[in-house]
Amino acid sequence: MPSHAESSQGSLAIVGLGPGKRDYMTARALKAIASANYVLGHHTYLEPLEPLLKGKTVISSSMGKEVDRAQQAIDLAKTHAVAIVSGGDAGVYGMASIVLEVLEHSGIEIEIEVIPGVTAANAAASRVGSPLSGDFAVISLSDLLTPLEIIEKRLDAIFSIGIPVVLYNPKSRGRPHNFALAVEHARKHLGEGTPIAIVKNALREDEVTIITTLKEIETHEPAIDMHTTVIIGGSESRIWRMGNNVKGIITPRGYHRKYVY
Ligand code: SAH
Q1: C-beta of residue 157 within 8 angstroms of C-beta of residue 182
Q2: Pocket lining: 116 vs ligand 1, CB cutoff 6 Å
Q3: Per DSSP, what are the bridge partners of residue 242?
Q4: Which atom of ligand 1 is least distant from the CA of 94?
């Protein structure tokens, strides 16, 4: 009997790892990694997984190498059990689309599974109350793969309808000004009292949360970096307090329109 690694029946799992700590990975993600012979991913995601990777061939790479990584994963998956990992959810600004695109282009047919993970929007929201209780939008401020003018068009459209907006990739060394641009668009449509949550390293060590308003946002801008998700409340969002303490943001789902409580 050939071992799974030698059998000609390969498989590819595209695994969302969640925001950071092991507790927030799904059981399915853990299982896919446990049964893989090859694990590929960005080195910052692979390092925390190290205890789970004993006896496996680990191929770590750096950012900007996603297409090569996808090609390599598909190649290996013809004959091996392969897991390619991505932070958060692999389908949200992650590896899933590029792997599927390269696979589609190659014409190769293999067993494939996309395993969902807790995305930064959900991780960040969970640390600051319930800011995303109803409809909300997600926008990435990274213009590496999307032209800035398209991002600005989307920001303008989304802020104009008053739903909460989650900003991924709010700032990095390569694009320090995109966040200020987003704030400019927000101010065109939202009041200065609009609550904002800044969540850095959600559900990881070194987590930082800040609750502020559109009026005060510039004061907190230095705290925003590439490990941060920013939630800009919608027209119905409000600051949530317990006693004198600001705890987070509540965006009512609308129960108050039907019930008394
Ligand atoms: N696939 C990932 C997103 C990758 S884009 C997901 O589903 O979460 C990278 C951006 O995600 C970062 O710039 C940051 O805005 C956000 N992010 C990812 N993990 C985060 C975390 N633990 N805390 C806060 N923001 C996070």
Answers
A1: no
A2: no
A3: 245
A4: 1
The CATH architecture assigned to 121-254 reads 2-Layer Sandwich (3.30)
Backbone angles phi, psi at 103, to 5 degrees: -65, -45
5 CA to centre of ligand 1 in angstroms:
32
Per-residue pLDDT of the chain in tens (261 residues, 90 and over written 9) = 444 444 468 999 999 999 999 999 999 999 999 999 999 999 999 999 999 999 999 999 877 788 999 999 999 999 999 999 999 999 999 999 999 999 999 999 999 999 999 999 999 999 999 999 999 999 999 999 999 999 999 999 999 999 999 999 999 778 889 999 999 999 999 999 999 999 999 999 999 999 999 999 999 999 999 999 999 999 999 999 999 999 999 999 988 998 999
CATH class of this structure's domain 11-118: alpha beta
Q: Where in the chain is the domain with CATH 3.40.1010.10?
A: 11-118
Q: CATH 3.30.950.10 occupies which residues in the chain? A: 121-254
**CA proximity to 234, closest of 137, 156, 169:** 137
Residue among 14, 42, 128, 229 to mutate when testing ligand 1 (max atoms within 8 A of CB): 229
Q: Which of 111, 51, 52 is nearest to 79 (CA)?
A: 111
